[in-house]
UniProtKB/TrEMBL annotation:
GO-annotated molecular function: NAD binding; oxidoreductase activity, acting on the CH-CH group of donors, NAD or NADP as acceptor; oxidoreductase activity, acting on the CH-OH group of donors, NAD or NADP as acceptor
Keyword Membrane in annotation: no
Protein source organism: Mangrovihabitans endophyticus
Gene3D superfamilies listed in its UniProt record: NAD(P)-binding Rossmann-like Domain (3.40.50.720)
Keyword Secreted on entry: no
Keywords for the protein's UniProt record, in alphabetical order: NAD, Oxidoreductase
InterPro entries: 6-PGluconate_DH-like_C_sf, NAD(P)-bd_dom_sf, UDP-Glc/GDP-Man, UDP-Glc/GDP-Man_DH_C, UDP-Glc/GDP-Man_DH_C_sf, UDP-Glc/GDP-Man_DH_dimer, UDP-Glc/GDP-Man_DH_N, UDP_ManNAc/GlcNAc_DH
PANTHER family on file: UDP-N-ACETYL-D-MANNOSAMINE DEHYDROGENASE
One record GO biological process: polysaccharide biosynthetic process
Protein name: Nucleotide sugar dehydrogenase
SUPFAM superfamilies per the UniProt record, alphabetical: 6-phosphogluconate dehydrogenase C-terminal domain-like, NAD(P)-binding Rossmann-fold domains, UDP-glucose/GDP-mannose dehydrogenase C-terminal domain
Domain UDP-glucose/GDP-mannose dehydrogenase C-terminal: 343-429
Family indicated by similarity: Belongs to the UDP-glucose/GDP-mannose dehydrogenase family.
Length: 442
């Protein structure tokens, strides 16, 4: 199934003919994109003894990596220091032509959505153009970026065929979705199984040889399409259940029941239940984005998925519900939202990461300002954010101001929040501050 309006951009003119003869590869693997997925993957492969070439089009990102400013777990920071000292087996470049030097090319670029909740395929399309242009016979190409079902064939297999390279014989093509949980040390990449779907069994065998070096084990599936759908199912499952948890939190508040206690009690059941927790919304590169790749594809075929559609509508509406709740809580003190001094505590999309991609906090701040509130934020990991009204700098000393309302959006490990006891009104969107005075929940 192919419904990709950006597909023509992959078959750019001027792509050179396939090379002949057996190439000599300088690197075991080239990782395309050194972001929140690509960099930890490159470091894990280097740690496993592979020679790695990192390709990143952003010079600023490369400068940050070389200066040790990348947002990584402490263990990965140690790995990065070791990799940067190993010039023979770890190098980084902006030169796409050097992809021909690697036996395997791993594509780890973002697949975001736009303001209309439609897939933005431009980063992936551009990366695949470069990969196709510089592919040589004998290479293995692994697409890891979450996308629609059929994308691997559309963006890699067919363009390569037009170059005279046949997947399964000349080159080896698979889809192996990434499974990295940024900022969570307990979910180590080396412990996590890796799903691999290839164009042929030989493709799977070639990819497994590399991925087994940095995964708990490799789980093969019958096709690239099955692997693509696996990733969509994983994150749609999470989106639906988070939406359900948020709804139960709203219901429980209305009935005077503690939803955290309810979830903990339900989680004692040893089968048939998996705990999901409510919050101010969902952010990051997966849950708020990936299901829209599936819905976009289904709409083109006039196929409806009402449960998923409703869940994603609820996900999208959560920041607006948070702002309405801010108004309700302020009204209990006789204060209107318009003119109120509001602090948003924590704007990262999850604890202990310097990442605001799709963070609900950004929309919440814009909506609070649109309602007339004076809004500031504090976050030890985020110095500056972009808002609808321009850049906003973090308040370095939020405890020194008398706020009408503090909205606790993200709690980072080790953060000093003792001063919240002095705040007149706190809206706890984390559902974690059980003993806090003047606390309200969403």
């Amino acid at each position: 199934m192919t419904n990709n309006p950006s597909l023509n951009s992959v078959t750019a003119p001027g792509i050179p003919a396939a090379r002949t003869g057996e190439p000599t590869f300088r690197y075991d693997v080239a990782v395309v994109g050194l972001g929140y997925v690509g960099l930890p993957t490159a470091l894990a492969l280097h740690k496993a003894g592979k020679s790695v070439l990192g390709l990143e089009i952003s010079c600023r990102r490369l400068d940050d990596i070389r200066a040790g400013r990348a947002d990584l777990l402490p263990s990965d920071n140690d790995r990065l220091a070791g990799a940067l000292d190993d010039e023979h087996a770890f190098q980084m470049t902006t030169d796409t032509a050097r992809l021909a030097e690697a036996a395997t090319v791993l594509v780890c670029v973002p697949t975001p959505i736009d303001h209309h909740l439609l897939p933005d395929l431009k980063p992936l399309a551009a990366a695949c153009v470069d990969v196709v242009a510089h592919t040589v016979s004998g290479q293995t190409l692994i697409l890891t970026s979450t996308t629609y079902v059929g994308c691997t064939r559309d963006f890699l297999v067919e363009p390569l065929r037009r170059r005279g390279l046949e997947a399964g014989s000349d080159i080896f093509v698979v889809f192996a979705p990434e499974r990295i949980d940024p900022g969570v040390a307990d979910h180590a990449q080396a412990d996590c199984p890796r799903v691999v779907g290839g164009v042929t069994e030989q493709c799977v065998a070639h990819a497994t040889e590399l991925l087994a070096a940095c995964a708990g084990y490799v789980h093969p599936v019958s096709s690239v399409e099955a692997a693509e759908m696996t990733k969509l199912y994983e994150n749609t499952f999470r989106a639906v259940n988070i939406s359900l948890a948020n709804e139960f939190a709203d219901i429980s508040r209305g009935l005077g029941v503690d939803i955290v206690e309810v979830i903990a009690a339900a989680a004692t059941k040893p089968y048939g239940f998996m705990p999901f927790h409510p919050g101010p919304g969902v952010g990051g590169h997966c849950i708020p984005c990936d299901p829209h790749y599936l819905l976009w594809q289904l709409r083109a075929d006039r196929v409806h998925a009402p449960l998923i559609e409703t869940a994603m509508e609820r996900v999208a509406s959560r920041p607006g519900n948070v702002v309405r709740r801010c108004g309700e809580v302020l009204s209990t003190t006789g204060t209107m939202l318009a003119g109120a001094k509001v602090l948003v505590l924590g704007v990262a999309y999850k604890p202990d990461v310097a990442d605001v991609r799709e963070s609900p906090a950004l929309e919440i701040i814009d909506r609070l300002r649109a309602a007339g509130a004076t809004v500031s934020y504090a976050d030890p990991h985020i110095d500056l954010i972009d808002t609808a009204d321009g850049e906003l700098t973090a308040d370095p000393a939020p405890e020194a101001t008398e706020w009408d309302l503090v909205l606790v959006h993200t709690l980072h490990r080790g953060a000093d929040i003792a001063w919240l006891e002095r705040a007149p009104v706190v809206l706890d969107a984390t559902f974690r501050l059980h003993d806090l005075k003047h606390r309200h929940v969403l």
